[in-house]
Every structure is written in C-alpha cells, then in structure tokens.
Amino acid sequence: MPFAVGDVVAERTVHLTRESLVRYAGASGDFNPIHYRDDIAAEVGLPGVLAHGMLTMGIASSVVVAALEPSTRIVDYGVRFTKPVVVHPTDGADLHVVATVGAVDDESTRIDLKVTFGETTVLVKAQLRVVS
To answer: What percent of the chain has pLDDT over 70?
Structure first.
C-alpha cells in the first residue's frame, strides 16, 4: 500500500469502561488499584480512576494495525505519556485516535498518532514506523 505524507491511515474512537480496565488488569497482571478504585485514586491525589498507560498505547497502535495490509510490519513504536485518561464510573471515557502519515522514505513509513481524551492530548510523539 503506497503512502503519502498527510494521508490519514485510520481514525477511530474507542470507548473505555471500568470493565475494560478490569479486563486489561487481568490480561496484563497490572492490578494497581488506581485503575479500578475511586477511593485509592483520590487518596493518592488523582482526579479519578485512570486507564492503564499501556492500554492507551495499545489501543492507539491497534487502530493503525486494523487499517494496514496484513503483510505490513511495525518495526518501531514509541510514545510519550502526557495526561491521564480518567474513566468515569458510569460514562466511561472515549479515546480518539487519528493516524496520519508523517514521513515516507525508501525503506519505511512513519505514522504519527494523535491520541486525545476529550480536548486533551494524552500521548505525544506517538509514532509507528512500518514497512510493507
């Protein structure tokens, strides 16, 4: 699949619930109570129960993977975490991902991710390098 700088590769909003966090905790083994208990989150000064950073990172990359040809490989992926995703007990949280081609060379393509929760960017320098 040929890419051009500026192409939007994928865009999706993923809804997270408290159940999503519990399921991820079970799969990952990360049972830190800030990811499922309001009282503990408040006790340590957080604005509420937070989505796991690695869950947020995984969701962001999965949006791109779903849009790529099966033969495409991710050879590098990095992010910088900037703000938490607070998951409301009843309303949950919507994580929005937009993946845009940032650079293309003879060997690979860099896909830049814009990952937001509401109006807040939660990951910066979120980039995948892929090869076909």
So the answer is: 99
